[in-house]
Amino acid sequence: MPRRRFSTLLALAAGLGLTAGCRDAAPWQAPDWRPERPPQRIVAASILATEVLLEIAPRERIVGVHSLAADPRYSLVVDQVHDLPLLGAEPEQLLAVRPDLVITDAFTRPETQTLLEVAGVPMLRTIAPASLADVATNIRSIGRVCHLDAAANELVHRMERGMAAVQAGADGLGVWHVCSLDGALHTYGRGSLVDAMLAGAGVHNLAAERGAGPFRKLDAETVLAWCPDAVLIAATPGEEERERAWLLDYPGLRLLPCVTRDRLLFVPGPLLGTTSHRIVDAAAFVQAALRAWGHP
Amino acid sequence: MRAGRACPWLLAAAVCVVSALYLVWAREGPGVVACGRWLLSFVDGTAEVSAWDRAIFGEIRLPRLLVALCGGASLALAGTVMQATFRNPLASPDLVGTAAGAALGGALAIVWQLAESTVLAVPLASLAGALAVTGLVFVLAGSHGRFSVTSLLLAGIALNTLVGALTAFAVTFSFANYTASSRVLFWLMGGLDARTWEHAGITSIGFIAFGALVVPRSRDLDLLTLRDDSAFSLGIDAQRTRRQLVWSACGLTAATVSNTGGIAFVGLVVPHLARLLVGPAHRILLPTAALLGALLLAGSDLLCRLAPPDANLRLGVVTALLGAPYFLFLLARHRRGEAL
Amino acid sequence: MNALVARDLRMQLGRRQIVDGVSMALQPGELVLLAGRNGAGKSTLLRLLLGVLRPDAGHVELHGRALATWPAMARARELAFVSQEAETPFEFTGRELVTMGRHPHRQRSQPLQSDDLAAIERALVAVDAVPFADRPITTLSGGEQRRIAVARALATEAPLLLLDEPTSNLDLEHALQLAGLLHELAAAGRGILIASHDLNLLASRCDRVVLLHAGKVFADGEPEQALAAANVAAVFGVQSVPPSGFFPRDYRL
């Protein structure tokens, strides 16, 4: 009997797999897809898309943005979206504004994507960026699907020029070895956008130097062993003291020279977490703070 | 199958070895030489040891090791006591809501921002939660001081469910702050990172106080594995003794999980291993289980610390990975018709 | 002198009167069979006499003193008990279980003395359990487990012994052996009360039978008299059972 039950299950699974495989790939899933006509009702279903579209697209073509874009804990464009419809994570809300293009990101739920596919709404999915080049790719993809290539290219060039300028002003900052931490001792290492931002600012990312991957949880001992010159902490403005308290809870961390000299660099959360061209602002912010402190 | 009287001594030796390794072995940071200097400084006041090394050994590794040893031993003792008093080899220390209450207390302390003010906030809140929920289970289950396993289990299941729901509710509030949310999650998963002397103090005091209540009663525990009327006929008040011992087990559990988060699983699996080694007689089973628990937790935590760093391995994950196969082994034994 | 006396015991469980005004006594040196149908109240009466259940009304005296006022350990040295069901889910050896019978004689954390060891050995020999005494109880047959349970009660060296269905699960040879052993123990001065519905095997060996019916004592006296055909017919609803059982009184293996 169990054998038969097992084969039934197997058949069921195979059937499901076939159905999934048989569904025709939508044309917009091709890497260089561009709609025939410029989309006029665009939904920016991620913070990245919102930050970029507000920069390159005429406002009347944006019919909705992700609700997190209005949340000061995550978004840099809070004051620019107050008159736009805010759409939550529910796919239904996306459809309600009758979009002809939805821009999602790597974190969008597969259910949402399936629903958009079924409803025949074209969709662009940006990649999770790990470098400045990835950010440029995302901006250009958004420009391509919106028929706004020129504006997108201009934004990319502005970002690259801005980063070059930040980098040019970095001399003397190469002595800093910094490390990003949060209250649970997570750090961003090699292959993360924070690493790219720190490289742009002309300072060393200690986590990458010590071989950490994009995201690692440290323990207090490791932080002591690394002994960073400064610690970057993402903080919602107004919650800096809370984050400091979290960090100093860890045994031994009060001994760190960067703690005794108060070199805890609180970066606004949305700035440290941005995946758009605003990464230049983050680099400039870090650079300015470190320059004000002078020497490690 | 039974290894006999040498077993506790062998285990004690293994605990010493693992403890020594625990202190000196790390992926990064000071090792044997610095540890030697630090230890020497206790005997010889003139020996030089940097504040740095003192912090790493004295403030980070030693308290963490103490929590691991006392916590592992406490959970193992608690599990052994629960299995004997409930006369069920599958009883675990979190049956009567202790661990669930501790989880809720700690989660609330984090969400309500008490945890930023003092290190003690989470353990104290969670201790309070553990005792409150355990007490409530006893009140709900108890009819006039009678100890009924079934009502205790029912009340435990009811409150475990309720408190679990409240904890999930509290966790959703933590999402307002990224740090708070990851802290809550790590707290629920359980782990020994960043344990301080406050944590070590509570865990070891709990271990010593409640351990001292449990260990001398090994013969009572033997008798409690009999049916109530047989135990009564041999001169112990089964109801009262069961109640006292379950409270002690809850004390051991609370003192540990309020400092480690959710790793109560250790308390289910270790007594089994210990019985496999020395048999069910508690005079030798209790020390064996305690040593084995200490060894398992310290060893697992050492594994966490030495694992590839990007693996972000958590203690609860390691203990579960070690424990689950053992229960599959028990299942195989059970299907062959052997006792658990 | 009566060692164990029950006076007008009453016990209600739910709405059912399980024990309904039972008075009886057990003296040293006598082997008493507490007989009756399933549900007649034998087990409950036994637990009232043991003291683990408190009667709703009436009282039990042990050596002239109310049972409830006895210190637990002292009582355990006077009154031993063998339960009907399997006892422990853990793999204790038979010897470990019999050792538990010495609990009332030992201070807390006192190691076993030579008289403890001697009592354990005597008990194991008496029930013929020495060959399997060191095997885990879970690997023993039902009958072997029962003999270990009896040995544990013997190890207490209590002068009074209460047994609940001691011959269930036993094959004929061991049942007879146990009956013989209980007979010898009674002859040597112990007072033994057996709750059982196994009239055939036990009635021929006991000194007295207490016939329980619907929570009341239906008859109390010599086996031939208590188990007279009329009584048996009334209590058990069967017409004819030889009053002395199928086995003659002097039956020996």
Care to describe what's here?
The complex is a heterotrimer of chains A (296), B (340) and C (253). In chain A, strands 3-2-1-4-5 form a five-stranded parallel β-sheet, sandwiched between helices. In chain A, strands 8-6-10-11 form a four-stranded parallel β-sheet, with helices on both faces. In chain A, helix 7 packs across helix 13 (279-293). The N and C termini of chain A lie far apart (72 Å). Chain A contains 13 helices and eleven strands. The longest helix of chain A has 21 residues, at 2-22. With 296 residues, chain A is α/β, with parallel strands linked by helices. The model of chain A has no long low-confidence stretch (mean pLDDT 88). Chain B has helices at residues 6-24, 32-43, 51-85, 98-111, 121-141, 149-174, 178-189, 197-214, 218-224, 228-233, 238-260, 266-278, 282-306, 315-335. The longest helix of chain B is centred in the N-terminal third of the chain and has 35 residues, at 51-85. The model of chain B has no long low-confidence stretch (mean pLDDT 88). With 340 residues, chain B is mostly helical. Chain B has 14 helices and no strands. Chain C has 253 residues and is an alpha/beta fold. Helix content of chain C is 32%, strand content 24%. Chain C has helices at residues 42-50, 72-78, 94-100, 114-126, 142-155, 172-187, 199-202, 223-226, 229-236; strands spanning 4-13, 16-26, 31-35, 57-62, 65-66, 79-82, 160-164, 191-195, 208-213, 216-221. In chain C, strand 9 and strand 10 (216-221) form a beta hairpin. The radius of gyration of chain C is 18 Å and the shape is globular. Chain B binds chain C through residues 84, 87-89, 216-219, 222-223, 225-230, 232-237, 275, 279-281, 338-340, and chain C through 47, 50-52, 72-73, 75-77, 79-81, 83, 85, 87-93, 96, 100-101, 103-104, 106, 108-109, 136, 138, 149, 153, 156, 162.
